[in-house]
Amino acid sequence: MEEADKTLGKVRGRWRRWGEHALGMAIEFSAVCAISLAALLIMFIIKAIVR
Amino acid sequence: MILRPSREDLKIIGWAIGRIILGIALIMLIPLVVSLACSEWSAALDFLVGILACVAFWLIVENVCYVKKDLGWFHGLIVASAGWITAMLFGAIPHFLSGHFRSYLDACFDLMSGYTTTGLYLLQDLDHVSHGLNMWRHLLTYAGGQGIIVIALTFLFAGTAGAFKIYVSEGKEERLLPNVIRTARAIWMVSLTYLWVGSGFLWIALTKEGMPLGRGFLHAVWLFMGSWSTGGFAPQALNLLYYHSFWVEFITLIIFVIGSFNFALHYSVWMGDRKEILRNVEVRSFATTVLIGVFVLSLGFGKLGIYTTLPEFFRKGFYNLVSGHTTTGNSTIYSVSFLREFGWLAMWATVFCMAIGASACSTGGGFKGLRMGVIFRYLRGEVRRLVSPDASVITEKIHHIRDIWLNDAIVKGAMFIVISYMVIYSLGAMLGIIYGYEPSVAIFDAISAGSNTGLSAGLTSPLMPALLKLFYIFEMWAGRLEFISVFALLGFAGALVRGKGKRSILRRRR
Fold first, then answer.
1. A4-18: per-residue pLDDT in tens?
2. pLDDT, tens digit (0-9, with 9 covering 90-100), for B277-322
3. How many CB pairs under 8 A join A and B?
4. Which chain B positions have a beta carbon within 8 Å of A31's beta carbon?
5. Cβ contact B294–A27 (<8 Å)
6. How far is the C-alpha of B388 from the C-alpha of B87, rounded, in Å?
7. C-alpha dist (Å) from residue B363 to B50, B146, B366
8. Which residues of B touch A47 (CB under 8 A)?
9. Structural domain boundaries of chain A?
10. Do B299 and A39 touch (CB under 8 A)?
């Protein structure tokens, strides 16, 4: 029984760790999108001014 | 008095370089398998010759140079710098045998460009190279992005204390974990996870665009490797322009920006410190300089009345600017367009971004965001000091994983590297101008080579003078290793010629 609990704990730990990694990847993706959106906003402002 | 390195020093260095070359032979097994799987017998033979040459070199140095001593700091610096040159010479064998190069120098140029994740190339008829050679080109840029020393540390240096010394000498100072070999493995864990995810998304996008499944898979993996490593290699001569796909461009943009982040930042965010991405000096520096670049780019385009719609601006302007800033070199326009179409304002915005480059301890090159952050904070501190009362104490700090208080040593270190980059950019540009190239073209390509970017305004070609090729190889190599190891190698060569006495550097240090 203890052995089974230990195995289950290990599996849960692994899933939790990969969940954290996936969340980390999502945050990095969001950061790139935020920078891109800010850049496009600047482009719109400059376009409006130049026009 | 300069001491001449002893035979023991040479043996220690030779032994470690042998291990690195063995690593190159192991990586060559992958394109060999691809060649065999695709029935490309000629390419397979090229890789077999390359592998045999590497293994023969390793066997010789393993037997001749083995000593029961660990690497010292100076050895680490020499191994890193000389290891890259040796790896270039051996890695170029399959390139040269493929028949796609005019000379061995051209093959070496492409190898150094690949290892240093630059992306400039002299290969001829790129659209018709074998799958095996394409795999090798992209694999070496992917491997070079993590650092060939990191590869050797991951697989071939288990348990040596000297490992840290060569790791640091490759231009990577971050230790993600207390043990440097576990740090190297953590770097691989991040890269391989993104390889699965990024290649998967690209495969879907390419298949959606109508590419057959098998070809789409290979192109997806190659494009990922070229983008993640900020190398900029692609399997087609037209680079990203070949695909005419918004989604392929969008996914590669995401990949190369994330690839240009510091591995310590990846590790920190992945391990649960989510706020680090907002506080990190390199992310802030990158965001600031990209937005300044976009501002200038928009002004330039607005003035000329080109790329005025959102999709056009994103795909032709923003994409190439960010590709330059992350020192990737993927491009959605023709080389000559930087000069003939962009106009001087937009072209200089791209040059400015290329020179600054990506993050420290990442796959990218250039000054690096960390140093820009240090210099900016130092200047801000100086201005604050000027306007404050004499008795006030002004201190500045940056945040990179932890708060770092700036001191003279940190600022001097950052300034030294930035000035070194500016010197090689200038020398490369002057050499190009002396050879009769247009100044803006010569400056563009020299900065591209020195910052390991890979965008070209048209100068880099198989027909360029041999001396310029050699200097670009030097620029790519020195820029990637961030100079210290290169200066150490020059010092080592000087000590070999002019040194006196026979005491080992290792013993002297003890």
1. 777 877 777 788 888
2. 999 988 999 999 999 999 999 999 988 988 888 899 999 999 999 9
3. 76
4. 277, 283
5. no
6. 54
7. 26, 6, 11
8. 298, 302, 308
9. 1-51
10. no
